[in-house]
Amino acid sequence: MEIQEKKVRESNLELLKIIAMFLICLSHVVNVFNGIENTNPYTLTFNGIFGLLVKNFGWFGDYIFIACSAYFLAFSKQFNIKKMLTYYIGCALIFILYLVVFKIIGISIPENLFIKTITTYEVFSYWYIKNYLIYLLILPLISLIIEKINQKTHKILIIVLLIIQEIAMLLKSIDVSIVPLVYVFISMQFIMSYGRKYGKYLFLKEDDKKKASIGLLLIIIFWIIKDILITYIGSNHNIVFKDAFGATERLSILYVIFGVDIFILFKNINIKHNKTINFISSLSLLFYLIHHNEFLSLVLDSPFNDILINYSSSLRPLVFLLGGLIRYIYGILVSILFYFVIFKPLKKLMDIIFNRNRNK
What we know:
Elements: H1 11-36, H2 46-55, H3 57-72, H4 81-104, H5 111-118, H6 127-148, H7 151-169, H8 179-198, E1 200-201, E2 204-205, H9 209-237, E3 244-247, H10 253-267, H11 275-282, H12 284-290, H13 294-309, H14 316-359
Helix pairs in contact: 1-2, 1-3, 1-10, 1-11, 1-13, 1-14, 2-9, 3-8, 3-10, 4-14, 6-8, 7-8, 9-10, 12-14, 13-14
């Protein structure tokens, strides 16, 4: 059974990606909040639990993006070097532009950041960009395998992949910045391609909104209880928990289930084709780089810290959320600017180069 790669944007899923952008934005600025609340080791207070829970938002958002990407690219056998080069060059130009602007206005830049920017290595400092580019390299091979296997083999492979992923979560010593997170893209592609071929995502049918809602609620409750327990144990035994399983916690299949559950819920929401939603969602890669990076941390983290300190502890979560919303709006507006200044001209240039080579 051959199913073509989806070309048409679905505004309900694009809206889900916009929500994911906000979750990721909050998770990237929560360290300032946690530092002020002295929640490392964490304290068994509302703010302590709030700060720990918000740290998970980033991974919730990332798995939403991975699920949506895997859904639309599930059967793509095209080796798209033009797309990869456009992403890489465009991201490198964004950081170089930040460097130029900071130099012009006289902001001091650490030497290592200057070198990473000039050599374009700064692009690979961001795990999602790095892993997404690697995933695009191997995507045609994965899609070819998916096309050749039958339903039974497909199901067995999904089970095996998820078991391996859960085992990998317990291996604290592995480098989660490269191989395992590319692995997440691959396992999610098998799940999403199975859903598109046979109408079932993991244990849920495509239109099973009730089970998806219950599953989503249970996962959120689990994470709240888990964070309360981590906070309680840490505060009573003076133990510092940066993550329950270290950095490898992000490999938990509970994140996978979360991504699938919320994907199904939004898949069943009827939203007419909306150009505004689709356009904002298309900026997600730009937004990822712009809303939080090493350059912005130099100028924004300290003022945000000062603002939060001036408010009582009970008001800080609200002020933090407002600050996150401002960062979110800033990220979208600057992403629009960079899209028209950098990415749109770059895409046209790459089209000219590749079309010329194709015609030779």
